[in-house]
Amino acid sequence: MAVTDTENPLLGETTCSSLLQKLQEIWDEVGETDEERDKMLLQIERECLDVYKRKVELAAKSRAQLLQALSDAKVELSSLLSALGEKSFVGVPEKTSGTIKEQLAAIAPVLEQLWKQKEERVKEFSDIQSQIEKICGEIAGNLSLSEEAPAVDEADLTLKKLDEYQAQLHELQKEKSDRLHKVLEFVSTVHDLCAVLGMDFFSTVTEVHPSLNDSTGVQSKSISNDTLSRLAKTVLALKEDKKQRLHKLQELATQLIDLWNLMDTPDEERKLFDHVTCNISASVDEVTVPGALALDLIEQAEVEVERLDQLKSSRMKEIAFKKQAELEEIYVHAHIEIDPVAAREKIMTLIDSGDVEPAELLADMDAQIAKAKEEALSRKDILDKVEKWMSACEEESWLEDYNRDENRYNASRGAHLNLKRAEKARILVNKIPALVDTLVAKTRAWEEDRGISFTYDGVPLLAMLDEYAMLRQEREEEKRRMRDQKKYHEQQNTEQEAIFGSRPSPARPASTKKVVGPRPNGGANGTPGRRLSLNANGSRSISKDGRRDSTNRPAAPVNYVAISKEDAASHVSGTDPVPASP
Fold this sequence. Notes:
Layout: H1 16-30, H2 34-84, H3 100-140, H4 159-197, H5 201-208, H6 225-263, H7 267-271, H8 274-277, H9 295-314, H10 316-333, H11 340-353, H12 358-404, H13 415-430, H14 432-450, E1 455-456, E2 459-460, H15 461-500, E3 531-533, E4 541-543, H16 565-568
């Protein structure tokens, strides 16, 4: 080998040439043969070649590693872009020019940025999935959350997938809000119902789920299907209990009022149970006062009803006689004849014998009262017309007395009132025949419908009407006879005056008869009192309240009395025109 290298004096370093020269000098001093020298140089050359080979292999291996790193970086870059859903990213080198290290240096910051973005995206996915799992667990009724974070699929971290998770989370949050609102509504309803029923709200609601207590936060309350179902069942059970208690309380209130009315309980005692009777006609939804349907209140009402029932038994006679008086009052107003003495004796006998329960006796008397009211209602139309007929007859009687009064037109006090009453009385009297015909027709229809006779205070009404018609006809005939007789006397006087001449009549002294005023039984307003009397052949009279004085024959109105023949000559018919007022 040619030795060309020498020691570089400038650098002061040992080079291969200088070493080789030094070796030649040593060999020259030693006297090595050329063969030994060639052999030694060949060995040195082989050792140098081995060193170069090792260096080349190391360099090639390093290059391969850099190429693999570059390839892995590119694959990782592509994977990150795909996972993040990034089609393009700022900073990614567009060209693959330059050395391997330059290419690695160019791609490294992009990878670092994408790794950072991936970590943030994974955290977002983990947060959303954690919220989704939490809400799903709440809906499923599993409130114990796992401490481990949910597994995130790092192969798909795109914004589209993130939006899907966010949409799912939004739907779950809305469902949770709806469920929570429904739970709070149920809890509020349970609170109101417990308040009305006088029940412990906390024990009732915590039986459904412990988280429903007011001490827990709103967001911590259970919203599971099981909780909602149990709340709904609890509300239904409380509403049914409320309905039954209200029905029971209304029954007790009705019994209280009936017993109070029977025994004439004073208002002061009734007011003690206003909280019971105030809901007697209320619906279930209208009862909202706390404690209005509490068990102790219902028990209090039951005790009071039981006490009044016992008191009612001791006051049975008083209550029964009160109902009997009510029954008699109905019959009196309906003008139905009964025997009150016998009825009261029968009540005394039943109560003293103990053969009938007090409730049964009162129920029977209530039935009699209801039947009496029904019968009175069926007679009302006829009785109203009987009242009008009797009133018209009284006005007719007054009108006859008024027409007989010779001083009725004098300018005395009350004369104009009597004149007005006479005008109204004539109109009313003219309606009597039609009123009697209507009354007869209705009475016959009533009797045919029921198969019994219609009586007025024990007297058949048709008999009364027939007698009135007969007497009215007799009176009309008497009036006509009187008018004929009057005409005859006037004709005789005229003939005598023609024969003997007229003679001055002595001065008529002032009449001492008073002007007819309102009758004592009629009053100034022309409304006569009610009274029925017979003619001279009978002694029965019926007063306005329907009480009998004696019994003999059918009664007739007051104007059945025949007209006095002494005043007949000066009588003016009720149908004659009214003279003008002086």
